[in-house]
Write a structure and sequence with these properties.
4-stranded antiparallel sheet, elongated, alpha+beta, 8% strand, 738 residues
């Protein structure tokens, strides 16, 4: 690092040529050229889908799994003008391109032994006909509690479309015909919620990025009190962000929902922290009387290795995500690792170059008014107190870390749609309304299979018992099965009605009954509460279903559903993330141990690095609940890199002071005065930068940012209080070998 710094300082033209050459690939990427094809990134992983796939293939969805839901509210739907408006709305929606069907109370026919007829009167029905139909519709077992709320004030219209343009047209048609008739309309459903997430992500990408830029530049102005220092410090990170975006495009790395906002902000913040360390040392050298180029070279000699190590360890933390199975996690880890390394190169190249140019001639101006640097001496008493009571501080710190780690262990992988969309958007509010009124928009499916010799009575009784068990759980909605369809056919209830399934409309019978495969399906609704809430429910149901199987040999019951399978995916991905994190921690420990040629230093660095991670996880569980989504789990990779960065800067300076002959207490004090100001500056900058992500209305980004902020603050405490205490208690030798 010393030889490279000296060479570039003495041969500026080589540095500028290198800058130009390194700018070519990202320039090509930003202009639209890609060296590789874009990779498809998705949350899904293989496996855990067989049962659900079987259910979806053998029971084509007509009720469960509707992509878009119109949630319509009114005091009374059964008025001639409102019924007419509903029929017109549905009729126009069915004519739209890419709409494959509509499911609502008007779709449910009245089934008799002699055929079928409409249950709800048509466009020209008068008040008497509608009043007569109201009682039938409101008490119909397939409508009440499923398509029409029990109080009759909320109506669901399911639309089968996966096309965004068609969904917009659906909403426009509904508003046009229904709102003038006193009916309010909102849209929700899996596809609508995904569209809301994408819409918010696209709208907030640039806003969050520019907010972060503004905050960082504003902080630089406050910290450095000099325009040249500000421009030079910010130049490296800005080049790093541009290079990062260009390189990602050049190598075919798409910006997915995780990387689109987080990676540019993260690159800017990490680059700015390296820039701060370099500029602080350049200013100190300039004040000491060194020339511009000599000051830049000396600064790089002193902090260049630390910046390199912090970038490598942070990149390792992200690269560890490549062992995950989910491609979107791999993409996030790969993009983040590229961003960290590219930004490091940009900063260590651009900042020294500009420091030695005409722009850096007065870089030290305003140094005497540096708020952090001039006030860090006042905090010297704090570190001296830590040194005096190092044993107590070390013991308390270790105990607190252990307690926080226990609290962190309560976090459980979970998946909620509400975490992916703004709480105040129409789609989210409509989903919450459906949770309260209908029991949710998710569906739990129970597959019932039997052998050929199984009596019809056993099949009927098992369906009945399954419904009973589902209805006994308060967190589940009303169950729905072929038995409910058969109940609308006149006749005595009982197993003999299974012979009448051929009278049912094909599209509805096929959702609940498949005689060829000897399978039936019972469905019920689930709220968007997360699987940490529903797992006990599923465990109870599974135990009861095993008892049903014991009472009815030859029949088998299986629980599945989209939300259940997605939760299994989340659990699997989060486990992979923590395996990746463990691997990264081991590699970082080895890097630190080898770099300092000391097992003792490697072990001592572990505690202040674990402390912020444990604090972040424990506080997350305390304030936001124990559920842990995938994006928040990804935050731990960033948290580890951030925690290690401060530790490395402190250790390198401490070892330098020890080699200069100072005893541990004095070495700690000198390290605190010289490096502490930069650590405080970078902490303030990172808090502000990640704080800009908290302005996002996406809950996943908000939770991600809060975890990063907690880690940054805790890392500063760990490195300025806990680490000094440990170094005093275990000082090692004064020689270059620690």
């Amino acid at each position: 690092m010393k030889r490279l710094s000296r060479f570039l300082a003495e041969h500026h033209w080589v540095a500028w040529l290198l800058f130009v050459l390194l700018s070519v690939p990202p320039g090509l990427g930003l202009s639209g050229y890609s060296l590789l094809d874009s990779r498809d990134a998705a949350w899904s992983t293989t496996g855990d889908r067989e049962t659900l796939g079987e259910a979806q293939s053998r029971f084509p969805s007509k009720v469960a799994g509707i992509p878009a839901l119109l949630v319509i509210e009114a005091d009374d739907f059964f008025q001639p003008e409102r019924v007419s408006a509903l029929w017109k709305t549905v009729g126009q929606i069915e004519q739209l391109e890419n709409v494959y069907g509509v499911m609502w109370m008007g779709s449910v026919p009245q089934v008799t032994l002699f055929g079928q007829r409409p249950l709800l009167p048509g466009l020209d029905a008068d008040a008497a006909e509608i009043a007569s139909a109201k009682e039938l519709v409101s008490t119909h077992p397939l409508i009440s509690g499923h398509l029409l709320s029990e109080d009759g004030r909320t109506l669901l219209v399911g639309v089968y479309t996966w096309n965004e343009d068609s969904m917009q047209k659906v909403t426009a048609i509904a508003h046009e015909h229904l709102e003038p008739r006193g009916m309010t309309v909102r849209l929700t459903g899996p596809m609508a919620l995904w569209r809301a997430h994408k819409r918010t992500l696209d709208a907030e990408h640039n806003r969050v990025l520019y907010t972060a830029m503004g905050l960082i530049i504003g902080l630089a102005l406050i910290i450095f009190r000099g325009l040249p220092a500000i421009l030079i410090t910010c130049s490296g990170p800005l080049v790093g962000v541009v290079w990062t975006l260009g390189w990602l495009a050049f190598v075919g790395e798409d910006l997915n929902e995780l990387t689109k906002i987080l990676v540019p902000v993260m690159a800017m913040i990490i680059g700015f922290t390296d820039g701060v360390h370099i500029v602080v040392h350049v200013r100190q050298e300039r004040v000491a009387g060194r020339s511009q180029r000599e000051a830049a070279a000396t600064a790089m000699e002193q902090v260049g290795l630390a910046c390199l190590l912090t970038s490598l360890t942070t990149a390792i933390g992200f690269a560890s995500l490549l062992i995950a199975d989910a491609t979107i996690i791999q993409s996030f880890g790969r993009s983040s690792a590229i961003a960290v390394l590219v930004t490091f190169v940009a900063v260590v190249l651009v900042v020294p170059l500009l420091s030695g140019s005409r722009l850096g001639k007065n870089i030290h101006k305003g140094y005497e008014r540096d708020l952090v640097g001039t006030n860090i001496q006042r905090l010297g008493g704090l570190v001296d107190g830590v040194v005096r009571h190092s044993r107590v501080v070390a013991i308390v710190g270790v105990l607190v870390t252990v307690v926080l780690a226990v609290g962190a262990s309560t976090l459980q992988p979970d998946n909620r749609l509400a975490h992916r969309i703004p709480h105040n958007c129409e789609e989210s509010q409509a989903m919450e309304h459906c949770d309260r009124v209908f029991g949710g928009i998710h569906f739990l499916r129970v597959l019932i299979s039997w052998k050929e010799e199984t009596p019809r009575e056993d099949v009927w009784n098992v369906i009945l018992e399954t419904e009973r068990e589902l209805n006994s759980e308060k967190l589940l909605g009303r169950s729905l099965s072929v038995r409910h369809w058969l109940s609308v056919i006149p006749g005595t209830e009982g197993p003999q009605k299974l012979a009448l399934t051929s009278l049912l409309p094909d599209e509805f019978r096929n959702e609940f009954w498949n005689s060829d495969e000897r399978q039936a399906q019972v469905v019920t609704r689930m709220q968007d509460l997360g699987m940490t809430v529903y797992n006990p429910v599923l465990d109870r149901l599974d135990a009861r279903f095993r008892k049903i199987e014991e009472r009815h040999p030859g029949l088998k019951l299986q629980i599945t559903g989209e939300a259940i399978v997605e939760n299994k995916v989340v659990q699997r991905v989060v486990r992979e993330l923590f395996h990746s994190l463990a691997l990264a921690a081991v590699i970082i420990f080895l890097v630190i141990t080898v770099t300092f040629r000391s097992l003792r230093i490697g072990l001592l660095s572990t505690i202040p690095n674990v402390f912020p991670l444990a604090a972040t996880a424990s506080l997350r569980a305390f304030f936001f609940g124990t559920s842990l989504d995938i994006s928040s789990a990804c935050a731990f990779a960033i948290c580890l890199g951030i925690a290690v960065d401060d530790t490395i800067h402190f250790l390198i300076r401490f070892m330098h002071e020890r080699e200069a002959g100072y005893e541990p207490p004095e070495a700690i004090h000198r390290t605190f005065v010289t490096v502490g100001s930069a650590l405080v500056m970078t902490t303030v900058v990172m808090v502000s930068g990640f704080g800009s992500v908290m302005t996002s209305s996406l809950p996943t980004h908000f939770l991600f940012a809060t975890m990063a902020l907690t880690t940054i603050a805790a890392a500063l405490v760990g490195d300025l209080i806990l680490l000094p205490a440990l170094l005093v208690q275990f000082p090692g030798r004064r020689s270059g070998s620690a």
